[in-house]
Hints:
Elements: E1 5-10, H1 14-25, E2 30-34, H2 57-70, E3 75-77, E4 80-85, E5 90-94, E6 97-106, E7 127-128, H3 131-134, E8 142-147, H4 152-161, E9 165-170, E10 183-186, E11 188-194, E12 198-204, E13 212-216, E14 219-223, H5 229-232, E15 238-239, E16 242-243, E17 256-258, H6 269-298
Parallel strand pairs: 1-2, 1-6, 2-3, 6-17, 7-14, 8-9, 8-14, 9-10
Antiparallel strand pairs: 4-5, 5-6, 11-12, 12-13, 15-16
Helix pairs in contact: 1-2, 1-6
Flavin-adenine dinucleotide binds near residues 12, 36, 80 and 107.
Amino acid sequence: MEEITDIIVIGAGPAGLSAAINGITRGKTVKLLTNTESYLAKAERVDNYLGFHKIDGQAMMKAFTEHAEAMGATVETGKVSNIFPMKKQFLVNFGGDILTARTVVLATGVAKTKAIRGEQELLGKGVSYCATCDGMLYRGKKVAVYGLAEDAVEEANYLHEIGVLVTFIAAKERPEGLHDAIGFIRGSVVEIQGEANVRSIRYKAPGTKGEETALEAEGIFILQNSIAPTALIDGLAMENGYVAVDRHMATNIPGLYAAGDCTGLPLQIAKAVGEGLVAAQQAAKYIDEKKAQSNKEEK
Ligand SMILES: Cc1cc2nc3c(=O)[nH]c(=O)nc-3n(C[C@H](O)[C@H](O)[C@H](O)COP(=O)(O)OP(=O)(O)OC[C@H]3O[C@@H](n4cnc5c(N)ncnc54)[C@H](O)[C@@H]3O)c2cc1C
C-alpha cells in the first residue's frame, strides 16, 4: 500500500509552492498537486513583491517553481475532485487515484466559476466532477458532460468508450477530437433538476433569447478547471465566499489548512506566500502533536 504523505498541498501557485517549501523545511513529506497554471502567470508586470522589481508573472512563477523543485518538491499535474476527511487521515481523489495524507493544505486560488442551480444539492446524486472516478456508475445511462475545461473532451470520450450515453454541452462550437458518436449541444447549463437524483439538465442555447430547454439525463459531469472549495470537501466553513480560517490558517476541519487567494482579500502574492508558510508550519505541528499523542496512548 502507498505510504501516507504528511502534507498534500493542492494548488501550485505562490501559496502552494510556499507551503511545499516550508513543509519540506520542517522535514515532512509533501505532495504538490496542481491543475492549470497559476493566475499569476497572466500578470504582465508585478512591482509590489519584495526582491523582484519589474518582473512579469511568468518569470516570477518560473523562479518560484524552480526554487520549490530545488528543495525537493515535485509538481504533479491533474485535478483534485474530492477530499474526504477520515478519522486519522485524509483521502484525496486526484484524477481517480486515491491518495492519503495526514494533513491537507488547500491553496486553490479563487474559484472562477459560480455553482449552477441544483449543483450543490445533487452533488454525489448524479452530479460529478470526475469521469474517471464515477464513469462506471453510468454505463448504459444518459448523461451530460458540461465541458468548461480542456480535459473535458478526453473525459467525454472515455465515458463513451465505457458505454455511457453522452451528450456534450459547451458554450462554443463542437470541440475537435470529440468522438463522432457523442451528441453535441451548444449552450450554457443553467440548472440541474431532480429530487433524490438528477433527472434533467436545463440549458440556454445561443440565439434563443434566453429560452431554457430541458435535456433528460441521469447524471452530469461538470468538467471545469476550478472547483469551489465547498464542492471539494463536505462541511467546509466559508466566510464571505472564501474559506474561513483562523490565524494559524486552520479551517473548521482538523488537519485541513488553507492559504492564498482561497482564504480571501487581499488577493496578492505576498499574502499568499506568507499564508502558505503559516499553513505548512501549522500542518507540521499538527502532525507532530498527533504523533506524540498516539505514542503516549501506546505506552
Ligand atoms: C493579471 C493579474 C495580475 C496580477 N498582478 C498582481 C500583482 O502585481 N501583485 C500581486 O501581489 N498580485 C497580483 N495578482 C494576484 C496574484 O496572481 C494572486 O494573488 C496569486 O496568484 C494567488 O496565489 P494562490 O497560490 O493563492 O493561487 P493561484 O495562483 O490562483 O494558484 C492556485 C492553483 O491551484 C490550482 N487548483 C485549483 N483548484 C484545483 C484542484 N481542484 N485541483 C488541483 N489544482 C487546483 C490552480 O490550477 C492554480 O494553479 C495578479 C493576478 C492577475 C490575474
